[in-house]
Specification:
single chain, 2 domains, 0% strand, mainly alpha, globular
């Protein structure tokens, strides 16, 4: 029982640090979009560069984070020897990557369409390398059950990043505008915010976090075991493939867009910035899915030996979709309010992608739920196949349709990619591990949501020129209809705590 309590505590710490971290990073969006006009294209540059960083992380770690856990806990292996060998491997790859980028910085900048702007590339190359290297001592903290230090370092990075961004994007311009304080910042600020400072700040924060790993990187003998390394590489390569496919599903649209877009010059970054900003609103669905995942994964494996486990999984899928659809309707219904808080007005023209991206988030969550069947029967290679198939569809949709439909193709590419992975997983689940999903009930919620969403879109067309409050009130009524249906079918009001007695 004590072990279970400890596990629950650690899970809560890891989960909350991740979710809180994502939420706090979410707060940077209004800072950036209100400081960098859409017409500058700067937010598009940031969106594109960070997509490259995200892609490089699984490549530079090449599955060694998971591999470390497997071999460190393997009977007959010396955990310190495993840890040391992994540090050598990942550290060597990261160092080689940085040196290669610095040596080829000009051709790389030109290839990425940032000729003459190497300041966009080299800081984030170092950040990607440091982030990848940090994955190993972070893994060691988890192995050593030091969940609190893990969470504190994650939060330190986020808080420091937000503080420095607030200083540069808000405090520094204020100091510059005042003639009596202008001299304080004039050495590095000329009155116009520059996107490269986002990358400089990230580099500062990442470097500082690395400093706090002194204990995890010292105090033991560094050894490189070549035979052990070979065995670990044999284990890790499927994880590498899976990781690359997974991250491409999230970033391929932002990577491909500059190469195939019909827009020219700066306009490419303008359009990508509008898309990137509006996608951030849809992150609400990502936060919901992430929170569900942290609770669901240990729950599934804990229930796997129970007699009625499959019925429980089916119920969990139903409840996930019920609340995911509710989140979708709430965001869409109050988008007029949310947009005013999260992004600047000159980015609003791209808001039509937000519901589509949220739909892809629902499909991603559904795919995660469905993925449990092959984990439970130890056939995880199915996940690699499904992810690669979904990634291939997403990339194809982007390459074919971006030239004509711009970032709308990016949004629908996500739906197509995650939809493909979800359908494939469901088909094979029927054969290998059939779960009695309540398809009729789930379909009824989906159909109702489609009708309500259609009504949300139609009301402004039917009642043009009305005050925005009228549309918000109408959308509120539509959301209440969905909640009432939830109450009738699956959440009777009489079962609610405290107030339930008034509905019996």
């Amino acid at each position: 029982m004590a072990n279970l309590r400890s596990l629950a505590k650690d899970t809560a710490i890891y989960g909350m640090s991740s979710i809180i971290g994502r939420f706090l990073n979410y707060l940077l969006v209004p800072i950036y979009t209100f400081s960098m006009p859409a017409s500058s294209g700067d937010y598009g540059i940031q969106t594109n560069i960070y997509a490259y960083v995200a892609l490089m992380l699984p490549i530079l770690t090449f599955g060694m984070e998971t591999t470390f856990f497997r071999f460190a806990n393997k009977e007959g292996e010396d955990p310190k020897r495993v840890y040391s060998t992994v540090l050598y491997m990942v550290g060597g790859v990261c160092l080689a990557f940085v040196l290669l980028v610095l040596a080829l910085i000009n051709p790389i900048s030109e290839w990425m369409h940032y000729e003459g702007h190497s300041e966009y590339i080299w800081p984030m190359a170092i950040v990607a390398a440091l982030d990848a290297f940090q994955c190993i001592p972070f893994a060691y903290l988890r192995y050593s059950r030091k969940a609190l230090k893990f969470a504190m370092l994650k939060c330190l990075f986020i808080v420091l990043n937000i503080v420095l961004n607030l200083m540069y994007f808000i405090a520094v311009p204020m100091l510059y505008e005042n003639e009596s304080t202008r001299h304080i910042v004039s050495s590095f600020f000329d009155g116009q915010v520059r996107v490269e400072w986002i990358f400089y700040i990230n580099l500062i924060c990442t470097s500082l976090v690395t400093f706090f790993f002194r204990k995890e990187l010292t105090g033991f003998k560094y050894v490189f075991d070549a035979r052990l390394a070979k065995r670990m590489l044999n284990y890790s390569w499927p994880i590498l493939v899976f990781g690359i496919a997974g991250i491409l599903n999230q970033t391929a649209d932002k990577l491909i867009f500059p190469f195939v877009s019909s827009h020219a010059g700066k306009e490419v970054n303008v359009q990508l910035g509008i898309y990137g900003a509006c996608v951030k609103i849809a992150m609400i669905m990502t936060l919901f899915t992430q929170a569900f995942r942290y609770a669901y994964e240990p729950f599934v494996f804990g229930k796997s030996k129970e007699k009625n486990s499959r019925e429980t999984y089916a119920a969990a899928m139903k409840y996930f979709l019920i609340f995911a659809i509710l989140a979708f309707l709430i965001v869409c219904g109050y988008l007029d309010i949310i947009k005013r808080i999260v992004i600047a007005p000159d980015y609003w023209e791209g808001l039509k992608v937000t519901p589509i991206v949220m739909l892809s988030g629902i499909l991603l969550g559904t795919y995660f739920n469905l993925s449990m069947w092959y984990k439970l029967i130890d056939k995880t290679w199915f996940g690699m196949i499904f992810s690669i198939a979904g990634c291939a569809v997403l990339i194809a949709v982007n390459i074919i349709f971006i030239p004509k439909y711009s970032y709308m193709a990016c949004a629908w590419g996500g739906v197509a990619g995650y939809g493909t992975a979800t359908i494939l997983s469901y088909i094979f689940e029927r054969k290998y591990y059939p779960i009695p999903y309540q398809k009729g009930r789930i379909f009824s919620y989906a159909l109702l949501a489609a009708v309500l969403f259609g009504a949300m879109q139609a009301i402004p067309e039917l009642l043009p020129g009305m005050h925005p409050a009228v549309y918000i009130c109408a959308n509120t009524v539509l959301i209440i209809i969905y909640i009432a249906y939830m109450s009738k079918k699956d959440f009777p009001l009489k079962n609610l705590p405290v107030v339930g007695k008034y509905f019996r």
